[in-house]
Backbone:
């Protein structure tokens, strides 16, 4: 489960040292491909399946790109890697990250949203009288540090939750399993399955997006400099990625799964299979604005809704220019 990652900036230098060198064109080699270092926000998983599918099936290469996927993990901060020039493009996990970029005037923008629904969930024990999100008022809720300033803001505004409910979540299911009154954050594609598999417990699962939470997730972030210098490269990456996600969900996922398991040997096929099934069942990728605008779609109206919610709770100044955090120019609108 990703949530919002703590910042570890030192990794930038390491990634820069390890980044692939530019290819040298030769007469026999054909057209030179543009190298792109693309940083994900967690270890390889089904939630990155479309990127890996586009790589495995040659969608990036067909559009002139030589893409290297650089795995994320605990402590990796993708916007900082982008700002430092250590990677060329990267994943923005959720909409708060994009508005934080706007607030801090970081020259990085969201150019597409692959997840129309943020996969964030709250998980509760069965048979405890918790049938809706509202029923969790007064219950202890295990949250990561960064989540307290993210979707927790929305939960407090909508349901009247209070900060004294918050307990520390360390990405370990143990404390949740030990307390039947407790709820825990997670991803709909991850924790519910691992809890059921490891503890034999089928939890109550509440997808925040299906209860009105308006955020996008898994966005492609691009530095302003790349957008200005080579917009064709950004457009090509967005288009190839959209095709990769379509193929991963509705075609043959085996090529992507093989690359995912190569990058992350701890990943198992059953976890990949159930996550992909949930991405489809909950319309995470092709619901929302993607129904009309295609995979990756974003709209000004949706961003305004999210900003108004966050600014209304004091997270951002109401006068902030939130539009500087994203652009629609690569989405055909």
Residues:
């Amino acid at each position: 489960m990703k949530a919002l990652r703590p910042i570890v900036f030192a990794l930038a230098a390491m990634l820069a040292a390890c980044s692939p060198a530019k290819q040298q064109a030769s007469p026999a080699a054909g057209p030179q491909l543009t190298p792109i270092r693309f940083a994900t926000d967690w270890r390889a998983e089904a939630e990155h399946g479309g990127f890996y599918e586009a790589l495995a099936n040659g969608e990036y290469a067909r559009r002139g790109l030589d893409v290297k996927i650089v795995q994320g993990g605990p402590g990796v901060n993708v916007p900082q890697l982008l700002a430092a020039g250590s990677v060329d493009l990267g994943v923005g996990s959720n909409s708060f990250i994009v508005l934080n970029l706007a607030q801090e005037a970081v020259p990085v923008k969201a150019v597409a949203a692959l997840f129309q629904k943020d996969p964030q969930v709250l998980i509760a024990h069965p048979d405890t009288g918790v049938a809706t999100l509202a029923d969790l008022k007064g219950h202890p809720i295990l949250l990561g540090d960064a989540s307290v300033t993210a979707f927790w803001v929305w939960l407090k505004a909508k349901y009247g939750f209070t900060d004294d409910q918050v307990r520390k979540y360390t990405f370990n299911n143990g404390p949740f399993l030990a307390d039947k009154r407790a709820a825990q954050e997670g991803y709909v594609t991850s924790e519910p399955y691992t809890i059921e598999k490891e503890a034999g417990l089928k939890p109550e699962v509440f997808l925040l997006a299906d209860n009105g939470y308006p955020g996008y997730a898994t966005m492609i972030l691009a530095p302003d400099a790349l957008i200005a210098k080579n917009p064709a490269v950004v457009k090509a990456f967005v288009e190839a990625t959209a095709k990769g996600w379509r193929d991963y969900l509705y075609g043959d996922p085996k090529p992507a799964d093989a690359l995912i398991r190569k990058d992350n040997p701890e990943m198992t096929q059953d976890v990949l299979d159930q996550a992909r099934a949930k991405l489809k069942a909950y319309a995470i990728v092709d619901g929302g604005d993607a129904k009309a605008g295609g995979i990756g779609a974003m709209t000004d109206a949706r961003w305004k809704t999210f900003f108004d919610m966050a600014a209304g709770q004091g997270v951002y100044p109401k006068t902030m220019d939130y539009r500087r955090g994203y652009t629609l120019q690569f989405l055909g609108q």
Notes: The two ends are 32 Å apart (CA to CA).
